[in-house]
Amino acid sequence: MRVLVVEDEAALAEQIARTLQDRGYVVDLASDGREAWYQGGVQDYDAILLDLGLPVLDGLSVLRRWRSEGMSSPVLVLTARDQWHEKVAGIDAGADDYLSKPFHMEELLARLRALIRRAGGHASALLSCGPLELDTRSARISLQGQPLLLTAQEFKLLAYLIHHAGQLVSRTELTEHLYAQDCERDSNTIEVFIGRLRKKLPAGLIETVRGMGYRLQAPDGAER
Question: Any idea where the Response regulatory domain is (predicted)?
């Protein structure tokens, strides 16, 4: 999952980024509103953490621009402001949730997970596709009730597919959501990890759509 962290306080931005990276997220940083507006417009993010008190262009203006341009990524607003009318302004501008500073990182993580789940149409913290189940709280995937042993990259890829079960996901989309900008982005790497996952999963669970990408599909008759 790829997350944009927009925060001008360098120490807090780095703390959030490290915490998210430790949980397996790919993180991009922006320290002012204009940079945030640009990045949110050119990169598809699974979620955005947005501070309101930004230099150059304030967070509310950034958010309004994104929404007016059709950017639909879920946005969690972070701010030291705690007056009710400012919270209302953030929600009206297009925020999906609101978290006042100071905050506990575990609450931030929980709200972020919820945003990403809801964006994919999932209400529960437990996501399933046939014999697979992903517990988003503990970041564990099980197969027929048994823990599935995966490398970090295998987990990221399979978790993304579970979040988008039944949907066609292109190699480009997987690459953009699973790898940092400074990493070499090679679609052949995705094919390698898909091959490794197939050896650990029941046959046919990951479908290849030739020339287009992959689809995680529950077997006929199995629950999604």
Answer: 2-116
Contact 94, 71 (CB under 8 A): no
Please tell us whether the domain made up of 2-119 is placed in CATH 3.40.50.150: no
Closest to 86 measured CA to CA, from 107, 65, 100 = 100
**CATH 3.30.43.10 for the 126-216 domain, yes or no:** no
In this prediction, residue 182 has a pLDDT band, given cuts at 50, 70 and 90, of: low
User: For the chain, what are the domain ranges?
Assistant: 2-119, 126-216
pTM metric for this prediction: 0.85
For residues 193, 22, 75 and 60, what is the CA-based torsion angle, rounded to 10 degrees? -130
Residues 76-101: what's their mean pLDDT? 84
Give every CB contact of residue 51 below 8 A, 6+ residues apart in sequence. Answer: 6, 7, 8, 9, 59, 77, 78, 79
Q: Give CA 112 to chain center in angstroms.
A: 8
pLDDT at residue 221, as a whole number: 46
Nearest C-alpha neighbor of 114 from the set 99, 93, 129: 99
Mean pLDDT, the chain, as a whole number? Answer: 90
